[in-house]
Amino acid sequence: MELHFPSNFLWGSTTAAYQVEGNNYNSDFWAEEHADGSPYKDKSGDTIDHYRLYREDIALMASLGLNTYRFSIEWSRIEPEPGQYSRSAIEHYRDVLETCYQHGITPVVAMHHFSSPKWLMRMGGWASPEVPERFAKYCEVVFREIGHLIPYALTMNEINLPVMLREIFSKIGFIPPVGIERDAWVAPKWRESAAKLCGTTIENYFTFHMISDESSINILKETHQKARQAIKRIQPNTKVGLSMALSDIQSIPGGEELAAQKWHSYFRQYLPMLEGDDFFGLQNYTREVYGPEGQVRPAEGAELTQMGYEFYPKALGNVIRKVSKDLSIPIMITEHGIATDDDSRRVEFIGKALEGLQACLDEGIDVRGYLHWTTFDNFEWQSGYSMKFGLIEVDRSTQERKVKESARYLGSISQLNILVKK
Hints:
By secondary structure, this protein is of the alpha/beta class. 39% of the residues lie in helices and 16% in strands. The longest helix is centred in the middle third of the chain and has 21 residues, at 214-234. This is Aryl-beta-glucosidase. One of its GO terms (molecular function) is beta-glucosidase activity.
C-alpha cells in the first residue's frame, strides 16, 4: 500500500550549530564543557567539523534525495561581544544558505538552538530584561544581511524544554540544564566554574535552560515576539515560528487530571506566545504516561532507546492531532528521531511515524514537512558522542561520512513523495 504526500512537502533533516560546527568557544556551553568538574562526558572540540565541511555535507544530503535542511545560526559567532558583529561569520552563513539553493535544498533556520554568547551571562543571562532587545537586534543584523535567503525561521528551539526539566527535577529542589544528569547538577562548584569562565558570578549565571519561572518565561515571550517583529519588518515574506518539544502525553485511569496539567504546562500555557506566528515547529521523540501517582514507567520488556525513551513511533501522529486542536497555523515537524546503534530500528521508527503523519494529513490537518533529528551522529551535549541519532555516521578521526540505510530510506521517500506501507 502506498501513502502519498502533498507535492510541496518538505523532507529533510536537522542539525544544531553547537553540536556539529565545532569550536564555538564564545558560547556559554563551551564554558560548561570546560568548567572544573563538568559532567560532560566529552569535549565538543571540532565536533564533526561541519563549519568547514558544510558544502560537502549539503551536497550529500541532496544526493540522498532530501529537499530541506534545518540548521541553526550560532549567536555567539555572529556577535562574539555585545554590539560587535562578525562579518566573516555572516558571510559563512550566507554561503551555507547559497549552497543549499545550489543543491535544490530549502533552508529552515533556527536563530537560537540552546547555546548563547558567554557575554550574555555577564548581563544576567536569560533572566535579564535586556535579552528581548539584544536578541531582536541580533536577528535584525542577520536578516538585513542574509534574510532574503531564509524562507523559514524559528526564533528559538524548544522554548518549553526548561519547564519540562523543572517538572522533572522540582521535587528535589533544583533545575539542571539540558542533558545534565541530576547528580552532576547538585555540585555548586561546577556551576560557579562555568559562570567564572563566562566572566561572571553564579548570581548572574542563567542559561536558556533555566527559563522556567514566571519572570523569565515572560522575558522569553517578549524575546520571541520582538525577534519575530524584527524579522518581519525586514523580510515580511519569511515564515516565522518557534519549536516545542512535545511528548505524547497519555493517561491511565486516575491519571487524567495530571496528564491534562502536564499538557497545559508543556504546551497550552505558551499558546499566547504563538499569536502572530506563521507556522509551528513540533518536535517529538516518545510518549509519557501518567497515573494517579505520577508518571508511569514503560512496561517491563518495553523497547528503550539509548536515551532511555520508550520506542513509540505512534506518538508523532498523536501529538500532531493534539496540537492541531489549539492551532490555526500550519505545523512543521522540525525534529523527530531516535538514539540507537541499530539503524534498522531507526528505519522502523521513521516508517511507522510517517504512517501516523500521513493519517493526520488525510484528516485535514495542515502539516507542511518532516525534518528528522539528526543529519549526523554528533555531539549530544552532556552525553558527548555516545548517542547515535544520525542518519549519517561520522568517523571523527578522519571526519569521513558514512551513509546509513535510514538516510537512504528517508531520501527515497522524499524523492518519490510516497511511503510504501509494509
